[in-house]
Amino acid sequence: MRVSKMLIPTLREVPAEADAISHQLLLRSGMVRKVAAGVYTLLPLGNKVVKKIENIVREEMNKAGGVELQLPIIQPAELWQESGRWDVYGPEMYRLKDRHGRDFCLGPTHEELITDLFRQEVKSYRQLPLLLYQVHNKYRDERRPRFGLLRGREFIMKDLYSFDKDEDGLEESYHKMYDAYNNIFSRCSLDFRAVEADSGAIGGDVSHEFMVIADTGEDEITFCSGCDYAANIDKTPCHSSGEDAAVEEERPLEKKETPEARTVQDVASYLGVDAAKVIKSLFYNADGKLVVVLVRGDRLVNEIKVKNYLECSMLEPADPDEMRNKYGLPMGFAGPVHLREKADVTILADTEIDNLTNAVAGANKNGYHFVNVNLGRDFQIDNYGDFRFAQVGDVCPCCGAPLQVQHGIEVGHIFKLGTKYSEAMEATIIDEKGKEAPVIMGCYGIGVTRTMAAAVEQCHDQDGIIWPSAISPFEVVIMAVNQRDEPQVNCATEIYQQLVAAGIDVLYDDRRERPGVKFKDADLIGYPARVVIGKKAITEGLIEVKWRSTGEMSFQEKGNIATYLKDALASMM
After folding, report:
1. 100 in any annotated domain
2. CATH code where residue 361 lies
3. Is pLDDT larger for residue 455 or for residue 237?
4. How many structural domains are present in the chain?
5. In which element (H, E) is residue 46 found?
């Protein structure tokens, strides 16, 4: 392929709307173009990267026993109503009506459709196990689409669904996919971790996320310094050891004026106490019921843990105006003391609250806090629980060693669904005993376009992208220093043909541009190897090769160039 025959509109300036590194570089390198918020066109180079990732995914899915199909994007509401998700999935679902007024959605995921297909076509346990997958577009109306392909409204995803007769079969399918995912991201040459995760809206009891390690990642993962434990920070359990419990006598409760001190830091500074002595009170609307969660002032509430504990469909912060007008509770000054006199509220406390003596809490009056607050004497709770995020230095739940925290980008997620969908939609099989039983399911997703963006977040420098060779749009770019010099052009053409014959994915930059322009574009786009035909190629038969990842440059014999590049690229796979 020649650059003169392609569409590669590179940009020198950073687009104003792009914040994430991957968003900036994918736009600048001419791989994507924005159509609307969260919607992008894949230009030829970007499409080529995506196809290479898809090929790796397909090879590993097929190797694991997967069978590819394609489900429709438009899905009838009736199936989602059967599963119970039509009314609870949320505003991220694109909903539409046909000309007859029937409800449909653009598929954000395909559990309902694949379950419906299964119940129509599969009847016996003898047809199992079954692993069905697709590589397809998904649609989610993100509230804040941002970071280019990392959080879009339209994206390409691989989703596989497993069907087994029992839990042992699900365990086997799950491990096949776990191993296949490790192979996929290893073949993409990405630094990643598989971590325990929360199942979220998809459901199920067990799930793992595959996280590409990147300082710019939105997600945080915890990992142990002493063992192999790793988990999404949303999932990481926190334990209160009791070692921090202060040995001090309870002092009388006092109300103190704290004007304009609404944040924990302001209150702690004003009263001259440590933030860990302040009780932070976070109010939520949980399926229409008022709930308050108490954590130490130096901790953050983990809303996923709270939602899972309450088993509620919707959990959102309480409206400040409603709290003030309906209950007389000013946000920033609300707390658990005398709270039940003002509102019918469920009071939950993180386990660490039990260790606090003579703490500080809001007095439920604008501009005031209580000091010397003590659980049992001054307020009661309904239940303790693990309601906070883990932090660096917390103890590992497996071995007790200190936890570390890294940032990452989720590129894959696997779930044990069990019978969540098969029971709701009556997808059954006849088992060995001749009895009808719900099929056991799992689902396994990979964000293909997100993987491309995550690779850029991890693999770049100040000059541009540094593609791993397995997913680079081209493995080698070749150019003549002077495209007007006939001997150089002839030599470049000859070597280009040699590389093509050797099976190397090569692009010939045949533009009549200055060498500096071509070099900058090559670095920006990030081809693993740059081959330059200059005067030495003509006079001495020496070809310049520069490797993008290391900056290493050498001269290779013209007759050996194809073998050299093929061997070097193979070693990078």
Report:
1. yes
2. 3.90.960.10
3. 455
4. 3
5. helix 44-63
Cis bond leading into 129, ω under 30°?
yes
**Per-residue tokens: 390:** 């883990």
Does 106 reside within a domain? yes
- For residue 398, being part of any structural domain is answered with no
- Look at residues 521, 405, 547 and name the one whose alpha carbon lies nearest to residue 468: 547
Q: Considering the chain, what percentage of its residues have pLDDT values greater than 90?
A: 82
Same domain, 228 and 258: no
pLDDT at 425 over 80: yes
Same domain, 205 and 230: yes
Rounded average pLDDT over 126-140: 96
Q: Cα-flanking dihedrals φ and ψ of residue 89, to 5°?
A: -60, -35
Query: Are 189 and 304 in the same domain?
Result: no
Strands of the sheet with 254-257, listed across from one edge: 254-257, 368-373, 359-362
| Closest listed residue to residue 293, CA positions, set 394, 386, 391, 395 | 386
Cα–Cα distance for residue pair 249/272, rounded to 1 Å: 19
Q: Quick one: 130 and 220 in the same domain?
A: yes
CA distance 525 to 27: 10
What is the DSSP secondary structure assignment for residue 432, as one 8-state letter? T
Considering the domain architecture, whether residues 490 and 436 belong to the same structural domain is answered as no
Whose tokens are 């004003």? That residue is 270
Based on the fold, state whether residues 445 and 481 are members of the same structural domain.
Answer: no
Alpha helices by DSSP H, 93-218: 111-121, 167-187
Domain extent at residue 262: 254-385
- Three-state SS for 282-336 is EEEEECCEEEEEEEECCCCECHHHHHHHHCCCCEEECCHHHHHHHHCCCCCCCCC
265-292 pLDDT, tens digit per residue, is: 999 999 999 999 999 999 999 999 999 9
Q: How many CA atoms lie within 13 A of 74 on its CB side?
A: 6
C-beta of residue 441 within 8 angstroms of C-beta of residue 203: no
Residue 282's region, left for phi above 0, alpha for psi from -120 to 50, else beta, is beta
Q: State how far the Cα of 30 lies from the Cα of 36, in Å rounded to an integer.
A: 17
User: Rounded to whole angstroms, how far apart are CA atoms 380 and 340?
Assistant: 9
- Same-domain pairing of 115 and 209: yes
> What gap in Å lies between CA 173 and CA 165, rounded to an integer?
11
In a domain, 129, yes or no: yes
Which CATH number characterizes residue 209's domain?
Answer: 3.30.930.10
* pLDDT (tens digit per residue) in 513-569: 999 999 999 999 999 999 999 999 899 989 999 999 999 999 999 989 999 999 999
Domain boundary among 385, 420, 439: 385
Q: What is the pLDDT of residue 437?
A: 95
CATH code of the domain in which 503 resides: 3.40.50.800
Pairing of strands 315-317, 279-286: antiparallel
**Nearest of 240, 232, 274, 225 to residue 393 by alpha carbon:** 225
Torsion sign across C-alpha atoms 2, 5, 11, 12: positive
Is residue 258 domain-shared with residue 230, that is, in the same domain?
no
Q: What is the pLDDT, as a whole number, of residue 196?
A: 86
Note the pTM of the prediction, 2 decimals. 0.86
